[in-house]
């Protein structure tokens, strides 16, 4: 992409959101040029796809959305653009869908450097390529200085669910096993670090990664995965509580089985955070039939997105709607949903 | 919907965006209860639809998005919720699509009164019912006081385009006629009025209305409509310039044929605005074969969304890429795309 339409140090002005020449130039020279998609470049008000090109991949359409307001925009290992693509890809993938198309709605604060926007767009493009999705339609709004904090991005996503796949939050059955695909809390810890809230130097990077390829492989080995979610805001504890409530069953996990980096444990101790509630951006929680655990763990650990996968617990019938954790000392406690706020603007 | 979960005067706190109990309560008691859709109430990360239920309506999927940052949130005749549903419905409809499903991504400023959010959600529900669409998936983010101005809403939309419909910005041919479905500039004037920028009392209300029913009727009479867009940001002038550029032809309009309310003309004169560039939220610009004009105008004028429809000009071959207006005095001038900013946060 050529940077010629913009001068070094140029910033976003209100005219870039006006519907006029400046906006067209921003859209064409920055977003369309970077995202490089034939639907987007037509500049129609909507992208269009023949059903015949989609129905071969499955029998259902999946549709989701997320807005991203993370602060700061750039943090160790990632940025808001990567998050905006990957997060929505993952929200499709955990429904068993093959993600296909994303929309991109930008709300930009007047004064944002064009270079910042270019870096974010390039990150979105790279993330879309990694996940195998296309950004096909978009919208750009500019608000006056002070009306938003730098940049918010909304992405919506469309995908196709293969016939026979039926993943539901309420699908867990007593005897099922609970799996995760690696270390917990890296994203939350990386954001804390990026905000300078630590008195120490940390090497923690976000775990932001697309999960759709890993999930497709898992579904090939075990088409009857019961529940699947990515543990973002609210962390592992929140997802397990959602499963327990929806399935009217009890999620029992073992503290010692949880993969948590020593450094993340340290950050949590210093700041009084609980890694069970820390946000992840590349971690899935799966409830699967017990007999599929070995095959799934072998597959997951051999996959780049699941090297540190682990079985962390199992599903019981009672106490229904509860999440219990067996601590390293052998005691058991309830893991409730968070009431207050742990970390604002984490994603 | 019961208001019981909230107390009078209650405001949004950071906990409402945390992923925990407060967020779940907000989503269930406010959004899910108000939008009242079976997909949404399942609280899955994605909505799911069988292709078999969609392909009967057409052969293509349409997908679009828009963010809404209008200031103020409530204005004469409408509000941000109505705009967020109607604007995205219209972006699908001008592609010839039957709009079906919307997503809703809310970015809420800490401190926003719950009652404001309830009023906006109820307006979204009413607008969705009027347009015949469902809000099926959503996301809620809360940012600290000062990080956004009250409330931004993103909606993405999915629809189905009937087989044989091929509407494109570049579809105009010399000899075609240009139609609009009523008064220009009402939305822009209503926003100006709501901001108190007028020294006079105005009765102007937004023209915000869904266009999908009108467009479906127009396509039934004239399946070969060439170009169709809603004249939002940038107004009629911007849409015509897009058609002229994409079709490499000349759009010629007659000033005397343009339906503009006396009051809107007055507001424009006072504030130095041009009604050709004022935003509309319920106005379509259609390029149609000349022989279809009479039948289309009869139909449009009989429709509640088109009572003041008019033929406003025609398509010529040259000067290619230009929009020309013949003034009331018989002279002709070029109508260019706006370079700067006319009105910020109009939608």
TrEMBL record, chains A, B:
<protein>
    <submittedName>
        <fullName>Hydrogenase expression/formation protein HypE</fullName>
    </submittedName>
</protein>
<dbReference type="GO" id="GO:0051604">
    <property type="term" value="P:protein maturation"/>
</dbReference>
<dbReference type="InterPro" id="IPR010918">
    <property type="entry name" value="PurM-like_C_dom"/>
</dbReference>
<dbReference type="InterPro" id="IPR011854">
    <property type="entry name" value="HypE"/>
</dbReference>
<comment type="similarity">
    <text>Belongs to the HypE family.</text>
</comment>
<feature type="domain" description="PurM-like N-terminal">
    <location>
        <begin position="56"/>
        <end position="161"/>
    </location>
</feature>
<dbReference type="InterPro" id="IPR036921">
    <property type="entry name" value="PurM-like_N_sf"/>
</dbReference>
<dbReference type="Pfam" id="PF00586">
    <property type="entry name" value="AIRS"/>
</dbReference>
<feature type="domain" description="PurM-like C-terminal">
    <location>
        <begin position="173"/>
        <end position="323"/>
    </location>
</feature>
<dbReference type="Pfam" id="PF02769">
    <property type="entry name" value="AIRS_C"/>
</dbReference>
<dbReference type="InterPro" id="IPR036676">
    <property type="entry name" value="PurM-like_C_sf"/>
</dbReference>
<dbReference type="InterPro" id="IPR016188">
    <property type="entry name" value="PurM-like_N"/>
</dbReference>
